[in-house]
């Protein structure tokens, strides 16, 4: 079975500060991992994904995430937060039968001026 | 251009009055999904179609039904909406074993 845990339902950073959003997963098979961003009253937009190969994945808007198998983690980072990064972020894992994605409960990122 | 289109963006219905939400896609993806998302919660998968094959989640209430008349369109029918069904409903698509889901902007349903 697959599951995702996002630590911290709310994260607040100052503009220009490092963003770190945590995601841990559980999977009985090699996982495919994703980060999505959701702005208010919008659908989810893919930020980045890990399937195979390089464990450090770069995405849109300056975000990146590192797959660490030993820690079963896929944390999302951005070196310098921008006001426009304020949104809710969801980590997801794809199930072995590929049709189903399991989402974490989300982390709301607040960026202070 | 929007690739997964959900109509309407906002829907108000009355308690117990059937309502239908629609989703269309221009991606020619063979898999379509419906999620329910309540405030500050993760999207919860209700069901998905793989081509014409319907796959219902075990905990999806019978009150929720779906139709997919063709590749491009998928509908979510709520037969007798209750107050607890007020939520954002998200449609998503993917192509077979590709890893990416493409989401529509969602329909926010209010039940009065």
Strand-helix topology:
The complex is a heterodimer of chains A (113) and B (112).
Chain A (H helix, E strand, L loop, with lengths): L2 E3 L4 E5 L4 E3 L2 E3 L5 E7 L5 E7 L5 E3 L5 E5 L4 E6 L8 E8 L6 E3 L3 E6 L1
Chain B lengths: L3 E4 L2 E4 L5 E7 L5 E7 L6 E7 L2 E4 L7 E4 L5 E6 L8 E8 L7 E2 L3 E5 L1
Parallel strand pairs in B: 2-11
Antiparallel strand pairs in B: 1-3, 3-8, 4-5, 4-9, 5-6, 7-8, 9-10, 9-11
In short:
With 113 residues, chain A is mostly beta strands. Chain A is 0% helix and 52% strand.
Key structural traits:
heterodimer; A: 113 residues; mainly beta; 6-stranded mixed beta sheet; 4-stranded antiparallel beta sheet; 12 strands; 0% helix; globular; B: 112 residues; 7-stranded mixed beta sheet
Biggest β-sheet strands, sense, barrel of chain A = 6 strands, mixed
Strand content of chain A: over 45%
- Determine the structural class of chain A based on helices, strands and strand pairing: mainly beta
Number of helices of chain B: 0
Low-confidence stretches of chain A: none
Describe the structure in your own words.
The complex is a heterodimer of chains A (113) and B (112). With 113 residues, chain A is mainly beta. Helix content of chain A is 0%, strand content 52%. Chain A contains no helices and 12 strands. In chain A, the strands form 3 sheets. In chain A, strands 2, 5, 6, 10, 11 and 12 form a 6-stranded mixed β-sheet that branches. A 4-stranded antiparallel β-sheet of chain A has the order 3-9-8-7, with no helix packed on it. In chain B, strand 9 (87-94) and strand 10 form a beta hairpin. In chain B, 0% of the residues lie in helices and 52% in strands. The model of chain B has no long low-confidence stretch (mean pLDDT 92). Chain B contains no helices and 11 strands. In chain B, strands 2, 4, 5, 6, 9, 10 and 11 form a 7-stranded mixed β-sheet that branches. The N and C termini of chain B lie far apart (33 Å). Chain B is mostly beta strands. At the A-B interface, strand 5 and strand 6 of A face strand 5, strand 9 and strand 10 of B.
């Amino acid at each position: 079975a697959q599951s995702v845990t996002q630590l911290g339902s709310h994260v607040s950073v100052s503009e220009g500060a490092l963003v770190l959003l945590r995601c841990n997963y559980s999977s009985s098979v090699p996982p495919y991992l994703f980060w999505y961003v959701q702005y208010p009253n919008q659908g989810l937009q893919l930020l980045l994904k890990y399937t195979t190969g390089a464990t450090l994945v770069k995405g849109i808007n300056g975000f990146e995430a590192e797959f660490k198998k030993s820690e079963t983690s896929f944390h999302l980072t951005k070196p310098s937060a921008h006001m426009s990064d304020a949104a809710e972020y969801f980590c997801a894992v794809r199930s072995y039968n590929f049709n189903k994605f399991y989402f974490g409960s989300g982390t709301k990122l607040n960026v202070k001026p | 251009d929007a690739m997964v289109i959900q109509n309407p963006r906002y829907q108000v219905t009355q308690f117990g009055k059937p309502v239908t939400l629609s989703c269309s896609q221009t991606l020619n993806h063979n898999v379509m999904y419906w999620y329910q998302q309540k405030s500050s919660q993760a999207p919860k998968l209700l069901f998905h179609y793989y081509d014409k094959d319907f796959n219902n989640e075990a905990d999806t209430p019978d009150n929720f039904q779906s139709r997919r008349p063709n590749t491009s369109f998928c509908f979510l029918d709520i037969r007798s909406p209750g107050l607890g069904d007020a939520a954002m409903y998200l449609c998503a698509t993917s192509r077979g074993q590709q890893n990416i889901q493409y989401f529509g902007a969602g329909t926010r349903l209010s039940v009065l």
